[in-house]
Amino acid sequence: MTDSDAETTAEASDEADSNGVVHLVGSGPGDPELLTLKARRLIDEADVVLHDKLPGPEIIETIPDGKREDVGKRAGGERTSQAYTNERLVELARSGKQVVRLKGGDPFVFGRGGEEAAYLAEHGVDFRVVPGVTSALAGPALAGIPATHREHASSVSVVTGHEDPTKDESAVDWDALAATQGTIVVLMGVGKLPEYTQALREAGMDGEVPVALVERASRPDERVVAGTVETITRVADRENVEPPAVTVIGDVAGERDRVREFLRR
Ligand code: SAH
């Protein structure tokens, strides 16, 4: 390749980029140092960053005011609809913008990233995916809880706690989860903690199985609250646990007691 060929290629790709592109970027659990290098660079280079609250203030505050758009809660506390976000992504990309759609954790783990990707593809918009550190694994890890363990857990299941387990049509099969004997990580699981711990008990899980709630993992005010399948609802109530928090259910949650004295952050 001659020098002039190289220039032509560079020009051609510049032109392709001027069409605008959307990056579906995972922010990790909240600590700015848990952003990937690629996420950091794309945020810095973006014309617009669409975000909600989940990336957390420590990260959101590093984005200049002028280029961020909050598509989480709007004035009046009403949630921006997914349809609005989808449409806004397409509109910005079509006007030639470099867009970052910043999502807490990993964009494809309970982040509706898949829906946004499908919408962009349907509308002929180029996009890229930048994986992030998911709270499902980072939450337990930061609390000193290994998601898997040679002695305790050969599998880890990540499920939503948002659905009511007492409903027949619940998409999460708590009986099957109890039967895996592996680790269960529940996202969006603060509100329905009493319902799904009860469902696990009814599925035959021992009430003594350790449970930990990791609240605001990696943020300055991170907190871990621990109990058992039997006691955790009461403990969470007493301690006023609030979202975002991940629930870790399984013998691995007990490993924390072995290491916590020396666990430094
Ligand atoms: N895509 C995200 C999950 C989005 S669903 C990810 O991969 O992490 C939202 C849920 O994620 C919250 O209800 C909570 O269960 C969990 N979550 C996200 N960030 C968290 C954090 N810093 N600490 C604890 N839980 C968190």
Written description of the protein model:
The chain has 265 residues and is α/β, with parallel strands linked by helices. 33% of the residues lie in helices and 19% in strands. It has two domains: 11-133, Tetrapyrrole methylase, N-terminal domain (Cobalt-precorrin-4 Transmethylase, domain 1, 3-Layer(aba) Sandwich); 136-264, Tetrapyrrole methylase, C-terminal domain (Methyltransferase, Cobalt-precorrin-4 Transmethylase, Domain 2). A five-stranded parallel β-sheet has the order 3-2-4-1-5, sandwiched between helices. A five-stranded mixed β-sheet has the order 6-7-10-8-9, with helices on both faces. A hairpin with a 7-residue loop joins strand 8 (210-215) and strand 9 (223-228). Residues 4-17 have low confidence and may be disordered. Bound molecules: S-adenosyl-L-homocysteine. Residues 29-30, 54, 103-106, 109-111, 134-136, 139, 187-188, 214, 216-219, 243-246 line the site of S-adenosyl-L-homocysteine (SAH).
SSE diagram, text form:
Elements: H1 3-17, E1 21-26, H2 37-45, E2 48-51, H3 57-60, E3 68-70, H4 82-94, E4 98-103, H5 113-122, E5 127-130, H6 135-142, E6 156-160, H7 174-180, E7 183-187, H8 193-202, E8 210-215, E9 223-228, H9 232-239, E10 245-249, H10 256-259
Parallel strand pairs: 1-4, 1-5, 2-3, 2-4, 6-7
Antiparallel strand pairs: 7-10, 8-9, 8-10
Helix pairs in contact: 7-8
The chain binds S-adenosyl-L-homocysteine (SAH).
The site of S-adenosyl-L-homocysteine (SAH) has 25 residues, from helix 6 and strand 10.
